[in-house]
Amino acid sequence: MRREQVHLVLDLFLDMGQKLIARPVPPEVKEHFHAAHKEVLLGVRALVDSAIERMDAAPTPPSSPPGPTAIKIEAE
Predict the structure, then answer these.
(1) Cβ contacts of residue 29 below 8 Å, gap of 6+?
(2) Quick check: 20 and 33 in contact, CB under 8 A?
(3) H or E element: which one contains 13?
């Protein structure tokens, strides 16, 4: 799933939740949306875990070279 798609899904879900909070709704509806919210968060966690696994599996970039080295110049 592309970054834009993830953002869109999260934005739609959060907007829907905000609209429902503003109106009186039956407790069953709140329970369903609470469960759905949890599932969205678990999905985000799975995306993050997957990204971490890919980073861990990728070859480690070489370390940066050491800092500047002093060079002795002999005068003639």
Answers:
(1) 20
(2) yes
(3) helix 3-21
